[in-house]
Amino acid sequence: MNTLLKDLFGVFRFAEGLYAGIRKILVPPKAYSWQTFIYMSVFSWVLSYFAIGYIKDIIAFFGWLFLIAGTAWYTTEDPLRVPGTFMPVGAVITGFLVSVFAFGSQRDVITPTTIVFWPTISALITAIPEFIEGTDTDAKAQIPKPEDRQKIIILVASSMLLSCWIQFYFVVDNWLEQYPSLQADTFKNSTFVLRNEDSAKAPPNGILILDKLQPIVEEQIGETAWSEVEKWLLDAKQRVGSLGRGVIQKNLGKYEEKELWRVEPRVSNTKSGYILDLLSIWTGPSSNPRGYYLKKSCRIEPVAAAGRSGDKITVGEIECDRLNKFIAGSPPPQQ
Fold first, then answer.
1. Rounded distance, CA 207 to CA 200, Å?
2. CA 95, CA 76: separation in Å to the nearest integer?
3. Are the CB atoms for 80 and 92 separated by under 8 Å?
4. Which range among 97-101, 248-252, 289-293, 307-311 has the greatest average pLDDT?
5. CA Rg, the chain, in Å?
6. What is the rounded average pLDDT of the residues 230-247?
7. What is the mean pLDDT of the chain?
8. How far apart (Å, rounded) are the C-alpha atoms in residues 225 and 84?
9. 3-state class of 34 per DSSP?
């Protein structure tokens, strides 16, 4: 029985201590405290939810200011330092809130710009108190001591360097998104880009161009009178170029690299007909100074067929390779 009472008293004491801890956090000891700013922030956001127009934005603006002030106050009361630096963890949290407030939007709260400026803003927040001397009610500007200036310069410079590398990541990521064919190239001589997976054998957009162009060419040549086929081949440069531009605009419209692809034909004679090579040529940056291109070969031959009146006529028959060839180097000259 005594053991049971001790356990009950222990549970009560634990609950009482937990309640006291929660109460200490939630109930401000005085009106001028960090809890007051947090509550004002929540109250502002609730009001902004019911407001409309520019009033909504003004109330939300002050809500962000109250949240940043309250968070900064709370996290600097007993600062925990980032290992190896004199930067408080609270400055990192406050810097993130300031960056979201400055560069975020209602649609995308966290944007690449938010992440890029986060380290630099956190470093500046850490450095600001070093330029202020005194208490909250009696403060004045000061020049930091020489030993403190060195720490401030190193911290801010390191954070700016980190921001630059983060920005570089987003720039490269945007390049690869808008110019996916760059991923087919080699980066073995690069000092800052490392490939963590096997290189693609051919750029997917170059393959897409030829795969979409092939059925159009087959439709225009197949089962067409042989005399018309030969006229088509004589004007192949203009025809294939025009068809290729249409395919590129239709299928690569969302990529910036659409301006770096062009389509050209190469026509050669055979004993029984012609060979039509469809080339999708990359004109963008490449580790190979001569660039690269993809080729799909089509064999065109005359075959006998029955005309509408039952007479025998000669028409064109076209058969294209199923796969494309990826070739490093300049395309062959046009004949």
1. 12
2. 13
3. no
4. 248-252
5. 35
6. 92
7. 80
8. 80
9. helix
pLDDT of residue 250 exceeding 60: yes
- pLDDT (tens digit per residue) in 29-60: 665 566 777 777 777 877 777 777 777 778 77
What is the per-residue pLDDT for 63?
Answer: 80
For residue 332, which amino acid is it?
A: P
Contact 298, 216 (CB under 8 A): no
What confidence score (pLDDT) does residue 263 get? Answer: 94
- What one-character-per-residue DSSP string does 155-197 give? HHHHHHHHHHHHHHHHHHHHHHHH-GGGGGS--TT-SS----S
DSSP 293: E
Tokens 């201590």 identify what position? Answer: 17
Q: Which residues lie below 8 Å from residue 99, measured CB to CB, with a gap of 6+?
A: 113, 114, 115, 117, 118, 121
CB neighbourhood size of 303 (10 A): 13
Compute the distance between CA of residue 159 and CA of residue 25 in angstroms, rounded to an integer: 32
Residue 116 has a pLDDT of 93
pTM of the predicted model over 0.70:
no
